[in-house]
């Protein structure tokens, strides 16, 4: 019956909250009439005593306990009092009666019964333990500590009591003493996993605090403490597994890749139980920008400055304040070089970038990765990359060789990373074709992609790539392509293309394919009503009806072809759209076109990593307005992660949207950067 106590203690110390609730503590009081050795020897012999006729004391106690467990407290109490009339010194019965009183909210009666039990049976561990829980429920934390220490003197190796003392000192605010009890508890009760969970959790939080304060060495020391706790654990619970995942990321943030490797060594058997540890290729991974990546491998490469779309100077004054720092860096971004590595020997791990399956590439030595995936966070036991932490300079990589089939591609190809996401493919993948036209060495190369979709093929053809020049790597791998390592021996690898360069190239290459050139008078609403349940507008129909009154057409982008979408955008006066992949189509707005972006309240959160991303898109595309809706979920269950909160439906206030649209439509367009 100890588990409720353990769970309540764990929750308390993990959260560093106040005293536990009465309800939690009542359920934690020991109900089972089992005393310590001294109590059993001196006061609880199960000899035949006739408190109610012919039944034994043992039978009577069992019956009282069963009644209590069944919720029949009054009957259980009557039976306990009958036993005590015959055997007033019977400690276990008095302790059970105290438990019944506690459950009924009669704290003073319970305290008197537990105190009398402890006096009758000084070696009765449960009486001391229950007194401690009662005092804690009453808010008398020093008294609770006193009784827990008395209980611990009776059972020095009781892990739950060490954990309780750590929790209590955490509530009191004495963190060093709390940690001391955790340390002693792990030493005296090494097999009691909740102690390790709580202690390792404390170390992880302390490491994060140290990192936030700029103390990288201190953060590393806390990670090492957690490592020793995890390494000595007799088993790894789900809580410890989650801690391992977070500690790997902290170790990477403080630039301790070897420490991350040690943490991964503990996690490997959990993630790959069918793979012998020696078959797991585990190593730190250094993230490099393009030219440094080429230099590390000794690849021949070319870099050059490509023409970029420059923003209009008037945009700075017309844009919201949160965008201005990003506007200031647009000119520098436009000057970033574009390049291509030639005859490169690389490896591509399918599923490396789990979000949108954006495959990425390593050098053949598997030690250096292009920085383009620096924001990747990977989940799932079948994926080799555990974590590349945003802003980190190194990642942790695991390649369990028996799980992956190697496919060798020896022919020269132009390698492009792949994604089924419309936004990422249009803005980040397709513009890399510009390097194919750079020189004779790349001009005739076929293009290797993964999992090519119909809209990919339409985009590629509009960009001038013949269909016969597209190779789908997954067709080479065959139907069993879920776990593949592709080894390319002669690949041309383009660099990432800066947004200003990508936007100019996309407009120059795709807009001429328009079949008509109507004036920019259309008003469009890009609804997500038929899309996956992400980024949804909860009152989509209400929004569409309001927009229809102002001359807007409601479209579902997933039902449109690529060229059809381009033509609609190029004729748009105003586009209203929620967060989603369709926002990439801003690139095709006409000069002076405006975009009203519907988002959740956290999209432009100070901690959001999308601020810079949005900042380098919007100023190039004319006037931008955004309107935040209100969450429709239960705040108590809302995820902490900003990315996860993007999936919470929001309700747009029709009055606020109407006022914004009236203002946008009444004002003549200014500040175009899309000529």
UniProtKB/TrEMBL annotation:
Pfam families: Glyco_transf_61 (PF04577). Coiled coil: none annotated. Residues 422-593 form the Glycosyltransferase 61 catalytic domain. SUPFAM superfamilies: TPR-like. InterPro entries: Glyco_transf_61_cat, TPR-like_helical_dom_sf, TPR_rpt. It comes from the Bacteria. GO terms for molecular function: glycosyltransferase activity. This is Glycosyltransferase 61 catalytic domain-containing protein.
């Amino acid at each position: 019956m100890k588990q409720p106590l353990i769970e309540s203690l764990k929750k308390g110390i993990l959260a560093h909250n106040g005293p536990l609730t009465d309800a939690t503590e009542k359920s934690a009081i020991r109900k089972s009439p089992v005393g310590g050795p001294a109590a059993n020897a001196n006061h609880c012999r199960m000899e035949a005593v006739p408190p109610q006729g012919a039944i034994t004391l043992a039978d009577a106690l069992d019956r009282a306990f069963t009644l209590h467990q069944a919720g029949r407290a009054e009957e259980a109490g009557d039976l306990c009092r009958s036993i005590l009339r015959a055997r007033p010194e019977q400690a276990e019965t008095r302790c059970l009666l105290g438990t019944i009183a506690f459950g009924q909210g009669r704290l003073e009666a319970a305290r008197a019964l537990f105190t009398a039990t402890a006096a009758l049976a000084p070696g009765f561990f449960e009486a001391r333990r229950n007194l401690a829980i009662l005092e804690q429920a009453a808010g008398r934390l020093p008294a609770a500590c006193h009784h827990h220490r008395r209980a611990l003197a009776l059972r020095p190796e009781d892990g739950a009591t060490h954990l309780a003392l750590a929790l209590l000192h955490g509530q009191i605010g004495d963190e060093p003493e709390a940690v001391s009890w955790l340390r002693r508890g792990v030493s005296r009760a090494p097999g009691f996993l909740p102690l390790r969970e709580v202690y390792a959790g404390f170390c992880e939080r302390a490491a994060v605090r140290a990192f936030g304060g700029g103390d990288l060495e201190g953060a590393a020391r806390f990670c090492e403490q957690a490592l020793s706790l995890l390494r000595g654990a007799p088993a790894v619970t789900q809580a410890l597994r989650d801690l391992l995942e977070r500690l790997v990321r902290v170790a990477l943030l403080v630039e301790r890749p070897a420490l991350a490797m040690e943490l991964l060594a503990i996690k490997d058997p959990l993630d790959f139980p069918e793979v012998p540890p020696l078959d797991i290729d585990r190593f730190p991974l250094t993230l490099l920008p393009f030219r440094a990546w080429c230099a590390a491998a000794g690849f021949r490469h070319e870099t050059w400055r490509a023409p970029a779309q420059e923003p209009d100077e008037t945009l700075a004054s017309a844009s919201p304040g949160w965008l201005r720092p990003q506007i200031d860096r647009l000119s520098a971004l436009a000057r970033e070089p574009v390049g291509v590595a030639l005859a490169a020997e690389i490896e591509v791990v399918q599923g490396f970038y789990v979000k949108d399956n954006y495959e990425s590439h390593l050098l053949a030595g598997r030690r250096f990765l292009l920085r383009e995936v620096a924001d990747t966070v990977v989940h799932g036991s079948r994926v080799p990359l555990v974590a590349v932490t945003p802003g980190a300079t190194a990642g942790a990589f695991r390649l369990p060789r028996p799980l992956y089939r190697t496919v060798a591609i020896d022919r020269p190809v132009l390698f492009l990373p792949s994604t089924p996401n419309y936004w990422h493919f249009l803005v980040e993948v397709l513009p890399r074709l510009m390097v194919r036209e750079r020189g004779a060495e790349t001009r005739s190369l076929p293009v290797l992609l993964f999992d090519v979709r119909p809209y990919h093929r339409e985009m590629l053809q509009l960009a001038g790539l013949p269909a016969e020049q597209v190779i789908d790597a997954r067709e080479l791998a065959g139907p069993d392509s879920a776990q593949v390592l592709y080894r390319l021996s002669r690949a041309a690898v383009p660099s990432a293309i800066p947004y200003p360069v990508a936007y100019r190239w996309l407009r120059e290459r795709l807009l001429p394919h328009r079949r008509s050139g109507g004036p920019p008078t259309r008003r469009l609403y890009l609804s997500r009503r038929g899309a996956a349940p992400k980024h949804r507008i909860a009152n989509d129909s209400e929004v569409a009806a309001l927009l229809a009154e102002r001359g807007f057409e409601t479209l579902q982008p997933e039902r449109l072809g690529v060229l059809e979408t381009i033509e609609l955008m190029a004729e748009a006066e105003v586009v209203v759209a929620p967060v989603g992949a369709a926002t990439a189509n801003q690139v095709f707005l006409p000069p002076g076109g405006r975009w009203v972006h519907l988002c959740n309240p956290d999209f432009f959160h100070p901690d959001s990593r999308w601020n810079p991303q949005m900042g380098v898109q919007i100023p190039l595309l004319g006037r931008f307005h955004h309107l935040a809706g209100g969450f429709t979920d239960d705040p108590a269950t809302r995820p902490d992660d900003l990315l996860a909160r993007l999936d919470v439906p929001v309700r747009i206030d029709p009055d606020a949207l109407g006022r914004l649209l009236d203002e946008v439509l009444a004002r003549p367009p200014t500040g175009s950067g899309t000529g």
